[in-house]
Amino acid sequence: MSGSIPFYQKHHRHYDRGYRSKETESKMSQYQSSSRYSAGSSTSATSWSRGLKVSPYSGLEESRLSPLPKRAKPTYLAVDKENQIIGYVVPIFRGSQEFATGFSDTEGARVRNMARRDLFTSGLEMERSEQISRKEAMRESADRISLNKRIHEHEEHFKRMNEDSLMHAPEFVIKPRSHTVWEKQCVRLHCTVSGWPDPRVVWYKNNVAIEPLANPGKYKLESRYSVHSLEINRCDFDDTAQYRVSAMNSKGELSAFASVVVKRFKGEIDESLPAPRHGPVSEYGITFQTHIVDKFGVSFGREGETMSLGCTVVIYPALHRYQPEVQWYKDDVLLCPSKWYQMHWSGDRATLTLTHMNKEDEGLYTLRVTTKSGYETYSSYVFVRDADAEVEGAPGAPLDVRCLDANKDYIIVTWKQPAVDGGNSILGYFVDRCEVGTTHWIQCNDTPVKFARFPVTGLVEGRSYVFRVRAVNKSGMSHPSRVSDPVAAMDPADRARMRGTSAPWTGQIIVTEEEPAEGIVPGRPLEPQVTEATKNYVVLSWKPPGEKGLEGVMYYVEKCVSGTDSWQRVNTEIPVKSPRFALFDLAEGKSYSFRVRCCNSAGVGEPSDPTEATTVGDKLDIPSAPGKVVPTRNTDTSVVVSWEASHDAKELIGYYIEGSIVGSNVWEPCNNKPVHATRFICHGLVTGETYVFRVRAVNAAGLSQFSQESEPVEVKAAIASPTPPYGITVLECVRDSMVLAWKQPTFIGGADITGYFVDYREVIDGVPGKWHEANIRAVSERAYRVSDLMENRKYQFQVRAANMAGVGIPSLPSDTFLCEEWTIAVPGPPHDLQVREVRNDSLVLIWKPPVYQGRDLVNGFYIDFKEADAPEEAWRGVNNKAEEKAYLKIKNLKEGEAYVFRVRAQNKAGVGKTSDVTEPVPAVTKPGTKEIVVDVDDDGMISLNFECCDLTPDSKFVWSKNYEEITADSRLAVETKGNKSRAVFNAPGEEDIGIYSCLVTHTDGASSSFNLSEEELKRLLEVSHNHKFPIIPLKSELAVELLEKGRVRFWLQAEKISADGKVDYVFNDNVISQGEKYKMNFDKNSGVIEMIMESLTPADEGTFTFQLKDGKATNQSSLVLIGDVFKELQKESEFQRKEWFRKQGPHFIEYLSYEVTPECCVVLKCKVGNMKKETSALWYKDGREIKADEHLGFTEGVLKLEIAQISKKDSGVYEVVLKDDRGKDTSTLNLTDQGFKELMNEVFSFIANSSTPLKITSTDEGIRLYTFVNFYNDLLQVTWHYKDSAIAFSDRIKSCVVGEQLWLQITEPTEKDMGKYAIEFNDGKGGLRRTVELSGQAFDDAFAEFKRLKAAAIAERGRARVAGGLPDVVTIQEGKALNLTCNISGDPVPEVTWLKNDREITSDDHCILKFESGKFASFTITAVNTSDTGKYSILVKNKYGTESGDFTVSVFIPEEAGGKKK
Questions:
Q1: Element (H, E) at 1300
Q2: pLDDT tens digit string along 1442-1453?
Q3: Cα–Cα distance, 428 to 448 (Å, whole number)
Q4: Residues near 95 by Cβ (< 8 Å), separated by ≥ 6?
Q5: Angle between helices 123-159 and 105-119 (to 10 degrees)
Q6: Phi, psi at residue 330, to the nearest 5°?
Q7: H-helix or E-strand containing 1139?
Q8: What are the residues whose beta carbons fall under 8 Å from the beta carbon of 994, sequence distance 6 or more?
């Protein structure tokens, strides 16, 4: 039974530990389920044993685990070190007998020996059989050891492999297939995908990603073991589509397609299905129209930048769930998403983003949009300029780095030379390598190589590398190129085997030897030859020896100089593993022959045949210079350059084109990526400039010489015949003729249209006849009457436009028109609608009246407009009243909105047909738009000036009045120079009133207008008169001012005056001149004219005039000084004169004044100047000198006198006198009466401002309102207010000042006293008022506090007291009488108690106690004795309190006293 178990259920490592890849697991599951692999096939498989590449865990592991020796179980799959299946292993059979029987040599011998043992039973035969069996077992053991060795080498090989070399792009092993199903059935699409790393798989329907969560139950996605499926549940018509499955990993992306068509039984409708929707529900049966708009143009970028290319795609009809296939191409190569390219499709806009531009990205980019009805494409070129060099003069970076020949020993790297060499020839190139997964770059060559191909050696077998190249000239190094794609250092056969799939029925078949032949020296290599030779290296290749099964064959390469027989081994240390080798360090110009030897562990074989002699040097020559270069006009920014190809050029990469403006001698590259064709469009040129071009060819050997320079060519648009006109309509129809109108072609071919040709043909029963010419000579208008027609016949028309390049193709045939006379009363449609002067909020619409007037003449027009995308119902009128003129300025448009317009004509019968609708016009002011400017020159000529920035060589300025072109007009002269045009009025008058407009042809509608109204004409005529008879403009008229010392200055200033300007000074009509009295000055740079007089006398009263003249320009200005004006000026002059003399000695800069400080001190101060030590400053009050001990001060030129607490006694006249030998000055300050009052008011203001907010407090008498001030003055007037009325003081309400506290006392307050109280400080200006609200809670709190304090006061007043009269100690002689009396107060009358030694005593004969009148208490002892000695107290008490008085009585005996004295 064990023989029937499939191979993958044995004890293999990849089975026990789970499948190492989903791909292998998927294939194994399919293999297990297949009926082909039954027990029979497994049994037959056990017969093959030798020469197979097996897993190290197949037979050898089982032999270790089993107690009995077992033979190795064979396998038929080639595996790697991780048991990944990489293909079949097919043994080569030695003979037909083995092939027929299926037995190996050992097995066959065993069968024969067993047969002999059965036939011959003798001991001798048995012994011989045992000896043979023993030998065969030993041989099997040797075979197993050899196989184990090979497996070990195989593992070691893959340990050196880099995982990156195993990576490969996704591949579809099984692609999904298309299905046709019935409605409500389920369909399943599945595919099998391989790739490493495991690809990410996404399903799309019509290029829209399928999201199962967005349609629950509709779609089911599964991915198991590299088998991916999409299940669509209950299909309906909407599921008919093209489905795409996309697999993507880090190495690339691949897609596969399948279609699903859902059918329905005829006449069978399932009521459970939703009702059919109106309109199209899928794309089938519909013809799509695709339009690509908003296109990207020719684009220019720079290395390292990011660029986005985008187009808007309009598909009609628009189905909600239908998406087209959008693809991008570069130079006709399909682009896939990568780190360099990112694609985005938003549903109506396709975008391609170049994330990091390099010169490799230069080329023709094409957008292709595919629908079921066809496809549309759009292409444009992208140019990539070099990034700025890090070192000035360094060359541009090389480009297109690729790896051509990759094997174990070397990789050949190629690249393309840059177009820019930095002004110095390129010395060579350096190649850098970087191992994948690291960031460390290593330079591969020590000296620069000129040949654009280089073999890189010194690589680690199996590792993956990327490469880059740098160019160098004598100025420095270029930027590095874009890195190449990763490539592994391994032979192509190994690489192919590593990329083979693991499924047995799809894997790569690898043919191997049955057994390695050990101990055999390999034979001679075959067919050695030189495949590539340059002056830097030689590449040699050969074929391995013909023998099979040789063990570990490697190679030695030997060289020999031609003409000698001395062979020298090149790779003496390490033999070569692959049959290719690159040799360096060969002498340039010498000839060499080469041969190869094989080697293995058994020894070195015989050499191969030598190659033919090869001379070291570049076999590839630099191409010759291209031939004649011919430039041709293309557009206004591009030129088509063509040239003759280089002769006998080998391995040509392409051509570089350079251009230069004639005379500049500066050459700029037109392309940075070589082009293969001999024709190229050079974009980005300057319009109107003249260029010359040159071309050079490039191959791996280098750049050719430049071709000869081309003929100069001016950059301007090429002339072509115009495109067809369109929009043919009928304007009038009579019995035998029809008037046609049409619209101008969208492209006029770069030259003015010279005329139109009209053809017509008759249509009989819907069948058109032959075309006939309607006019032989071209008509210039876009309307023409076609005559000689037949009444009641039908006709079609076509129109062709012509220019100097020729006649264009005809338009599409018009609609079929019936030739019958119009009899309608209303007019026909206006025609030839044109839009001019488009701005953000306005435009001008002009038209031509209808040809057919109707029964009456046309008397007006109505204009309609709507948004371009609005429905027909959105048409609305611009004017409510018919417009008589054939033009109208339409205002109040919305910026950025596109509009369409139409016009209707009106006569007495009514409003006629509408004109054709204009093309959509966006209300946008184009950049650079200029307006007509009115100018009046120095000669008084009035002109209209218009400038156009977008002028083309063929553009013309067309001036119109009231939108009718001005031809030969004696009233207006037109002058055009460059991009400016000037219309000059010869003799402007009322006839010139109107709207003047200017249109520039061959531009994007550049136009402007100017309304010359009657008022504007009057203004311009006035300005013109001023220019003809100019007046010198004045910045200021003649004025007078006083200078120092009372001098008088007359002056004026002209805006501009030349060096030839003159001035006449006139007084009372008499010219005055420079002299002692008058000093004149004329500064022509500033235009200031002045005359200075030392003083004024009564004789100087009159009129002063300055008369100016500058060429023909004149002006004058006068100043009248008479009467009071003159007297005031004279008086002020005299005063200033005196002031000047005063200031020659000590004087007051600032006269005496006062200042009130925040402390309410008054400081008298004055500022003095021109002081010296001898100058005295004396203070006086009322004529009495103020002594120095008073508060005088002098600091920093300021004299001060401080009055600390001002009062009425400080009123008076204060005076300061400055005096020394130079003179005397006096300053007086009157502080009496009004002066003192004003001073005090300022003091009062400071006091008022220092007051605190009015507060409330309570006393035992009532409520008190109070405020504090920093300083109080007895002269301060304060008014108390109650409810905004002054309070009349009484005994109950009174005010008082205590220190700095001002208060108002309300005695015995009641609720009537509640309200708003205020104190007002009078400072003579507006005063200051402080208020407080005595009501509510504030009043309640104050009143309660008053009651409390009042009760406390009453208690204090009525409390029992001992007022006085008792001594502290009484010393008395025994026998004497003691009488003490004290005052007692209290209400009610207190109770009196006497105490002796704290014990109450009562009145008796010895001690008499009395309390009389409730006020006097007496203590009498009639005759004291020693027992009366002690401490006595009187205690008074009533309901308000208790108080006591203490005294001590000391009684002495006289004898004792005398004895003591002795």
A1: none
A2: 888 888 989 888
A3: 5
A4: none
A5: 170
A6: -125, 120
A7: helix 1123-1142
A8: 961, 962, 1011, 1012
